[in-house]
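Still learning. Any example?
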Amino acid sequence: MNRIFAAGGLGLSAALFLGANSFPDRAAAAARYIFFLAGMLAVLSLILLLQNTPSPDSHVRWVRSPKNFTLAVVSLAAYGILTSYLGFFPASALFMAALSWMLGFRRPFFIILGTGLILGFVWLVFVHFLGVPVPMGIWGE
């Protein structure tokens, strides 16, 4: 199992590296950060791949709640599709609120507060300070 995760990590680091090459010049600092993350992920994945330890218990249940896992995977797919139409922030707000509700959180105030805080933090760090462009969807360019 470790080798599968290591291969996945190496693939993800390659995708991050290739994706950061397409960042605009004004987001050079963000691209360097992504290169750093991709490099660290590649190094850690290589360590995991080359480890000579037996896999942990094979009887470990990876999915404890198949219903919640399925809801999360379907929601992620819908989020990926909706992001290009609605834009990053509206799609993220909808995704976070809907997934929270589907997973059993029933306090709307905290769902809205958590969604707002996380999206505010993402906007502040990535859009405002690092200049990372986000999909604008129908509100677009």
